[in-house]
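Notebook, p. 212. Picked up where the previous page left off. The plan for this session was modest: take the two constructs that came back from the sequencing core last week, fold each one, and keep the raw output in the notebook itself so nobody has to go hunting through shared drives later. Recording the first one now, exactly as returned: residue sequence, then the structure token string.
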Amino acid sequence: MVLTKELVGIAAYAAYLLVPCFFIVAIYRTRLHPLKEYPGPVLAKLTDCYGGYQAIAQRTHLDIWQNHMQYGPVIRYGPNRLLFNSATAVQDIYQNQNFTKSHLYVLSRLGGGSSLFSTMDKDHHRHKRQLYAQALSDRSTRMFEPTVLEHLDVFLKLILKSCDSSTPVEMTTQCQYLGFDVIGSLALGQRLNLQTEEKNRVILRLLIAAKTQVNILMHLPAFRFLSPVLQALPSRQSRQFVSALTDVFTARQAQESEQQDLYSILSGPATEGIFENIMGEIIFFMTTGGTPPATVVSALFFYLCRYPECYKALTHEIRSTFSSGKEIRSGPHLASCRYLRACIDESMRINPPSLATLWREQTQDSRGPVTVDRHVVPRGTQVGVNIYALHHNEEYFPDPFAFRPERWLETAGSDDSARSKSQKAFIPFIVGPRACAGKATLYLEVSLAIAKMLWYFDFESAPGPLGKVGEGEPGNTRGRHRVDEFQMFDVFNSHNHGPNLLFRTRGDFYSDLV
């Protein structure tokens, strides 16, 4: 009884101290703060917990878009955060030497050394990027194409097998397995065999969980105090994850190979002192390179099912450009498929592979005020542009939720000025010195996958509830109400489910695959 009274007394004393502090902080952040004039959700002005909650719910991109629609092109999305929604802001933030990566990127290391993603020093980042570029150059991409085609051949045979049994194919999962098989070969020269074996699939599952944690940390830095606890919790999957990665790295280290995979480049003598943790770099590389192609392909097939005129136009282009499935490879014929490229770009516009806001802050050595889209930004403010929100800004993309590949095509009567305006706001790979280095590799992998699938197969949505996977839900009040929008979940990269498709062989062209 005495102990209970003491605890009640301590709680009351703490409340007497904390309640006034809360009101003082609230008054300062809403009435006296340098960002007080900027509109935004009241809770976001008070605490980072607002953005953290949206990140936990995996709907940050939807909430940011809704707030831009309500408050305008500049919103306050945290006590010290400003979000912009214009192409001008993209240039002012991501191509401005006065801005650098936010200190929040340190939180993405999760106990390991810095990777290309989390490296803060600009010179250090530039040296790392030059070495990454060796693995992602045009020459390396051309040399790597046969390996991509080998993995894609496995993918196509699995689809062919589904035709025999009339089994729906869940595109997101199967495309993610394909993407990680491809990136595993490029990173380590190792066949992970996710498409055909269960063993290494735990790598994919745990990397998605890690990205989710990083995304929450970026919006709610206080969550970092729980990270050591979460990592210390015993988990069978965590042990399997470590075991699978260790086996893959051990196998690669035992190879005396001349191949130009990323591991051979990063572990060379010339890189000594540049990379603190090669395993961390490889894991980052696989994470950023494995899931985006899956998002693009899955989203595109979702929209082709719902826009039959686009499906018809794309299949006609592919089947009239090539004379056989084996002819589909990089070169002038594939490059001439302008409608294919337009469909890929429109898919990445509506469903960008990354949903995260890439936060920036003023460098320590910059002098004077820094402006973003004519707004003076106080020092210490986190600034950024959310790609999803910008890609759905009607100022740049009229009818932003409609799948319209023709908006990217130069045709008779098309509006060149409108297309130029759209292109300036199209940033699926972001821009500037920190832009994604794997753009060419993604376009190659996605183009080959789509062209070959449409050469060998026809498809349609699975019947019943399975065919609705990936759709929005009418009446949903959380931004997921559009039935014809492929739903994404923010785990830093985008994460999604579906569509479930029934494939049919096209004539006897499938004999190439047997």
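Okay, moving on. Second construct, recorded in the same format:
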Amino acid sequence: MQKALPRPIAAALATVLAGSLAACSFESPLRVPQAPLDKTPYTAGASIKQTVVPGGPAGQAQEMEYGKELHEEWWKLFHAKALDELIAAGLKNSPTSAQAQAQLREAQATAKVNNSIFYPQITGNLQANRSKASAAAFGRSGGFYYSLITGSVGVTYYPDIFGVNRLVYRNSEALVKYQQWELEAARLTLTGNIVTTAINEAATAGQVRATTAIIAQEKKLLQLTENQYRAGAIDYVNVVNQRSQLATEMATLPPLEQQLAVYRHELAILVGNFPANASRQTFTLEELQLPEKLPVSLPSQLLKQRPDIRAALAQMRAANAMIGEARAQFYPTVQLSAAFGATATHPGLFFNPVSSIWSLVGALSQPIFEGGKLEAQKAEAHAAYDVVYAAYRSTVLSAFAQVANALRAVEHDAQTLAAQREAFQAAAQALQLAQASYRAGASDYLTLLTSEVQYDHARIAEIKAESQRYQDTAALLVALGGGWWNKTGPRAPASAPQNSHSDAGTLPAAQANP
């Protein structure tokens, strides 16, 4: 049978709830640096619009599309099925992603714990006691026995008069947002590392193949040189020089194979496997398709699209709530508690109205003197905010530097590849002419050896230039945030960026059209 609370208790609880709705707060407005204008360029000097055309594989021009949205699965711009499969395995199996997910769940659980302070804490208590009391106090010998049954329901509530509870919850809520963005940043870093490592693996495998082909060519030249020596057409020193050149080329192969093994092991770790389970099947640079159009976010949007910037902003919100908590400590803390129940010496009397008991207690605690502790705590909270404020600025500046560097790298990579491709074509033509002339006896061995060295260096340099172009393209897409805001599934950590700049900012920058 349920009993209604006594009128004084019900009135007190209603007063508490009404007072909580009118609670005040000591949280200050969030202070963030000034946001950049959309006309602010990323790089010093004129902004890049289109690269040169290097020609050949990975040799098309790349156009910067400022203000265009980036696809969520940005790595699919390379159109490499093997790369897509690696990233899918990494997102599923990587311990880094699993760790970030667990940290997010931990933060969400902490926020739920802190959210419970907004509700009355209700506890029930039932106690049965059988005791013997001495009769000596009444001038008798022996004693007497009695039973006591007590049951009660207690209600404790902390009215949020000065908004302390809200500040504690906002702190934990901001930390949840921080972990959400840390999870997104971990995924972005993971996909970026997989793409970069895969490109390095493909480039190194290409260098291994090129070096192997060069060694085979050097062996044929050594055989030719030995035949010419036996025929008395050249001196023995030419044979020795060719053997030295062959040994030099062979010495470059083991380091390349070692680096290839390292990249394969790294890929295995990134996708959550042991190095022993590293895949022996690799894809080549020729399987990658260089994106011809690169979407580049406007500067103001970059603040909302970079997970590390959003995480730093969430830390600022948490630190701002801590300042409010420190200020609220100077004011009284109120605690209200109520209890209603019954006590009786016999179970049959437990529900009798004469056995009912209740209490209503209000407590107020006001700091008077604590030796400067509260002032020190407030100063500590302000200093902590200054720390995360500076960290936010540093994160923003670093993000803009990464985008600026990647944009210039994409521009210069095309120029480098064009020069390296021209150098390789010239070196290949020179080697063919030198070989024909050497076979015909029209030129000496030194001319042939010089052409070989130039060809070897030009071929390896071309492969490195191709690889660097792919890598810096990937670096630009990662620096822009990776396109998470275009998610269609439930994995998005927050709503897509809007045009408002109220919650993000950075240092002022010079104005120019991108």
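Notes on construct two before I forget. Residues 104 and 179 are 5 Å apart (CA to CA).
Flagging for discussion at group meeting.
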